[in-house]
Design brief:
Blueprint (H helix, E strand, L loop, with lengths): L4 E7 L4 H13 L9 E6 L7 H12 L4 E5 L3 E3 L2 E3 L5 E7 L3 E13 L2 E5 L10 E6 L6 H11 L4 E6 L11 E3 L2 E3 L3 E8 L1 E8 L3 E2 L4 E7 L2 E5 L4 H11 L2 H9 L1 E6 L12 E9 L6 E3 L8 E6 L2 H12 L7 E7 L4 H4 L4 H10 L3 E6 L2 E5 L2 E5 L3 E8 L1
Parallel strand pairs: 2-3, 9-10, 22-23
Antiparallel strand pairs: 1-6, 2-6, 3-11, 4-5, 4-23, 7-8, 7-13, 9-13, 10-24, 11-12, 14-26, 15-21, 16-17, 16-21, 17-20, 18-19, 18-21, 19-20, 22-26, 24-25
Length: 384
């Protein structure tokens, strides 16, 4: 019986073909001679004009069963995050006794309403979905809402391409095809299991409150008091570091699983606090919140994001390999030092890693898939 084997490679040669060849050679060394059943190719914006050459080189070197990829503003390979420089990352996996079902989706408006074309007719049992999407042409939030109705329980992990500033500037890779919009991905099912880890980079402050008044995305009452009064209470009881973080930006976490009575990391979906009305005490947030839900205020800074990621990777078993989809607001912009997220993940797991910095990250919280910001979303591969 063959074993699950994964390899990853990174190259910074300014020539995309040479870079892909070098990265593929490094990745293939991790497969121990096994076939490449699934591969990912991530390229920096420098290589977008010649991405077709990069795809051809990857196919020649890997002969993959399925190849997926996209361009990212910055690229991750191993313990390194390459910012503002040409880079190619390749991730390759031998997945024994595992089904890989690729898909390519397009969003369309039809006489019957909005629809998503290209989703597989049959979803394998216990499948996990990996997806890469274009932020300009593919409404990921709407798609996730549709999947919640049609395929509840299906976990989805991935990210939105980045580095482009307008429609048509991103590239998605599906086998030999290069697309400039939509969504590409694959369903993974069988012996190899893909599990998610979503680090939203926040920590809770104060106490959780029941929502006792709300209108769409406006909180009107928390536990019988105005949200603004609750924020003032939280600030008064916080220590100096949390007060400083609250001044820099406040967030609200809503508990997704309504059956939970005790809350910990991973139970909250984090959204921004958008503003407050001094007269009424109402607070607007970046999500629709219902009466009866539980919320808690959160703060996000470099220290809390570091702590959250370290805590979460320290709580799971070492995978055979991992894919990292991290926000383009992280990196040196947030942490002030290079290689932060990749360094923590490879330091904890010592497993092959590749990925990119995203325009939005996809991953489940509380059993439902969401589009996130400022998040590190990981796909972890295990042999069952």
């Amino acid at each position: 019986m063959s074993r699950l084997a994964i390899g990853a490679g990174l190259a910074t040669d300014p020539d995309p073909q040479r870079a892909v060849e070098a990265a593929c050679a490094e990745a293939m060394a991790g497969l121990d001679g096994g076939s490449c059943d699934l591969a990912f190719l991530f390229v920096s914006p420098h290589h977008v004009p010649r991405v077709a050459d990069a795809v051809a080189a990857a196919h020649a070197a890997l002969r993959p069963g399925t190849l997926l990829g996209c361009n990212g503003m910055w690229v991750v390979g191993g313990s390194r995050e390459i910012e503002d420089a040409p880079a190619v990352a390749v991730w390759a996996a031998h997945l024994p006794e595992t089904q890989v079902v690729p898909f390519a989706l397009e969003y369309a408006e039809t006489p019957d309403g909005e629809t998503f074309l290209g989703w597989p007719d049959a979803i394998p049992d216990d499948a996990t979905a990996l997806a890469l999407a274009d932020p300009f042409t593919f409404p990921a939030d709407d798609w996730l809402a549709r999947l919640a109705d049609t395929h509840p329980g299906l976990e989805l992990i991935g990210g939105l391409a980045s580095g482009g500033r307008a429609p048509g500037q991103h590239r998605l890779i599906m086998n030999t095809e290069v697309r400039n919009g939509g969504c590409v991905g694959a369903l993974i099912a069988g012996r190899v299991k893909v599990r998610s880890l979503v680090s939203q980079g926040c920590k809770p402050v104060g106490q959780p409150y029941a929502v006792t008044g709300a209108e769409r995305n406006v909180l009107l009452s928390l536990g019988g008091q105005t949200p603004l009064d609750r924020i003032r209470e939280t600030y008064a009881e916080a220590d100096a570091s949390d007060r400083e973080a609250m001044q820099l930006g406040l967030h609200v976490g809503r508990v997704v699983d309504e059956y939970k009575t005790e809350f910990r990391r991973g139970d909250f979906l984090i959204r921004n606090v958008l503003g407050a009305d001094e007269q009424s005490g109402a607070v607007a947030v970046g999500d629709v919140v219902g009466i009866g839900e539980t919320v808690q205020f959160h703060v996000r800074d470099a220290a809390s994001a570091d702590e959250d990621l370290r805590t979460m990777v320290g709580a799971v078993d070492r995978p055979a390999g991992a894919l990292l989809f991290t926000c383009n607001g992280r990196g040196t912009r947030l942490f002030g030092v290079p290689d932060h997220d990749a360094g923590i993940v490879t330091g904890a797991f010592a497993s092959p890693l590749a990925g990119f910095f995203c325009n939005g990250e996809l991953g489940p919280v509380g059993g439902r898939n969401f589009l996130h910001g400022f998040t590190a979303s990981l796909a972890l591969f295990y042999d069952s």
